[in-house]
Design brief:
The protein is mainly alpha-helical. The chain is built from 12 helices and 2 strands; from the N terminus they run H-H-H-H-H-H-H-H-H-H-H-H-E-E. Strands 1-2 form a two-stranded antiparallel sheet. It is a multi-pass membrane protein.
Length: about 425
Amino acid sequence: MRFAGSKQAIWWGAAALVLVLVLWFLGNAIMPFLLGMAIAYFLDPVADRLERAGLSRTLAVVLITAIVVLAFAATLVWLVPLLVRQGTQLVETAPHMIQRLQEVVQARFPDLLPSGGFLDMALDKGRETVAGSMGTIVGSVMGSINGVIGFVMVVVIAPVVAFYMLLDWDRMVDRIDALLPRPHLDTLRTLFAQINDSISGFVRGQAVVILILALLYSTGLALAGLPFGIVIGVSAASLSFIPYLGTLLGGVLSIGVALFSFWDEPARILIVAGIFAAGQMLESNYLQPKIIGGHVGLHPVWLMLALAVFGTLFGFVGLLVAVPLGAAVGVIVRHTVARYKESALYTGAQQPSPPPQPTLVEIVPHGTVARRIAQEQRTHDEAVREARVGAQPPEMQGPEPQGPVLPDSRAGFPVPGGRIGGG
């Protein structure tokens, strides 16, 4: 008996509900495992390429793990303290920058920012808010990350999980494929392939774009002598997955710092503005088309919605699963819309019923049926004769009657006793 489609939908809906409940109740506990799975997913193509180059899977995974651990350790030792230090200094200096900008504008352009006006009061209020709350916000964010997530768990468990999952990734994918419902196997494989293309095309490509832009912005601003240039460049590059947002915020912040620091050096201010203009041109005209290319990506608005929804529902874990789940939902929605446009509900025309199964007719050489009937008749006659002979006493059994054997032209086999039929 076939499993009804409605029952399959119920079971898949129940599985999705279980996933939501697991993320809701066990989100912080399973966060290192989700992070390790994400790391393994992103590094699997590298391991596959090393395998094709001649390395074994184990050796490839060990080599990748060593490189990643060294890079992560270098980041923790050098980059993270630098970003924290510059970020803290930027937060502490922001109120003085706002006050300095306010004084300069009032002195140079009194009509643009009159004393006691709406903009002047808004800047005063913003300066007080930044001075009073930014330090508290940064401290609470860092404290919540260390307290809820468990920094030690993330650092220790996530790499171990990533190592073992990367080692068994191909076998795990094959086992999952073996569990897919057979009636919908082709459809599910197509959907999963599109989801994988969406995630890998966007996330892997965007990670490379962010890395290139972070190097460009940070190096350029540092060479220009801009204070806090590294933290501004990294922050602007990290927001570049939303078109123009990273460039806009980074450009405004860096130009504001440049105005505060290089007020009497307009050439350096123009250099800072030119760095972000060059970065935006490079991203729009080369990085995005060449690296991300024609992959089925995530629309920035859809990505922001997924981050907001899953982050609100599941916290930091929701941010980790927002991109893959958002990609999956997007692919399923597109597939549903395509099926809807093919249905009678959209076209208004009843879909034709499938053609009936044709009647199968076996074509055999001439005389095959007759020979089969004759063979069955001979088998029956022999069985009857053996039964009769076996039923008589041995002394009464005599020789079988003999007669001329003539061919039967109709049936194609010899018949004892003469001709059958006339003519």
